[in-house]
Amino acid sequence: MNHTNNKKDQFDKNTLIKLINKYNTPLWIYDKNIIQKQIIQLQQFNRIRFAQKSCSNINILKIMKEHKIHVDAVSQGEIERALTAGFTPKEIIFTADLFDYQTLLRIIELNITVNIGSIDMLHQIGKLSPQHAIWLRVNPKFGHGHHEKTNTGGENSKHGIWNILEAIDIINKYKLKLIGIHIHIGSGVNNEYLEKVCNAMVNTIYSLKKDIQWISAGGGLPIPYRLEEKNINIKNYFNLWNIARIKIEKFLGHSIKLEIEPGRFLVAESGILVSEIRAIKTMGKKHYTLVNAGFNDLIRPTMYGSYHYISVIHKNDPNTYSNQQVETIIGGPLCESGDIFTQNSNNILTTRLLPKTKIGDYIIFHDTGAYGASMSSNYNSRPLIPEIILENGIPKLIRRRQTYQEMMQLELI
Ligand SMILES: *Cc1c(COP(=O)(O)O)cnc(C)c1O
Predict the structure, then answer these.
(1) Choice among 1, 40, 283, 335 that is catalytic
(2) Does 55 qualify as catalytic in the annotation?
């Protein structure tokens, strides 16, 4: 494996070393230019809606706002974040399969459009806020996802509405205002599957007996986590949805707008997790490299067996790599055997061939801008780590490291 000069090598090593020295490890680093490059690719859609659960730092949300992107919120916390970042309630859609009661009241107070995922939600909002603006999230009765846990359709998914005609009856009863139909298909798209989803959208609308103005293709646009994977062909993706849109326009007799709702696609490639090697050991025939970041920081490998490209920076010689290589398992500091970054979706340990390292060298986890910081926790009482963004190479701290005091602050002594 050639470790140098590949497409994952986007961050300037000298800048990284400076940031490491200033903020200590572990830390998240994002590059704003990469986010902007991704945004530009989606300009053909009538509207981009950022699925903020993928990376919810207020400063990331502000970048989206700067680019006229709207935002998806899946909890009251995400609504409050979006408002803090400067979004108006009109630019927020709340997507869920249930309402917390307090959240429902807040949504009504702000008059936030809701993307409805269950029949019970329709009754609950209809009773308190007749004529409220809604979308319906359709369960297309088949599913797909990069892992069982990310499957978003079919009877093994909890998401969306199964019986659309039942939903329409309730919409009519409360005079709810139906804006559009939404299908979120889960990550991992191939052509055949995508056509199936587009057809499901068209057929849903043929059966609706109700007018709409918008359709949403949801999120799920993949990114190339592995070196050998290709970028998704956005033109082709747009074309398939556009064909569906044209069919729907013909049927309804007026123009229809097309929204897309990515999380991962916009932010995954913009982010890295930087950790420091603190122990190197051999157990029987296996070589372990242990770093100071754990699944409390980056949970995707443990939760889904997700693959992240991993690279090395030698502390004393950041711009070259050791000639010697080693097949190594990479793990973190947590008191939990699943705290391993190199495992497959059956939780079997795998190895990476990496340049030979020393204690104090750095391990970089790539493509962690999505579902990285936003999924991290305080497990093992480890504080949340800093987030830094580079804007044309200039670093800005967008979240400082949590203190131990802050971590215990909610607990009553
Ligand atoms: C998570 C989610 C998305 C984003 O999914 P990605 O795979 O990150 O693009 C979009 N829409 C909804 C409703 C979601 O729950």
Answers:
(1) 335
(2) no
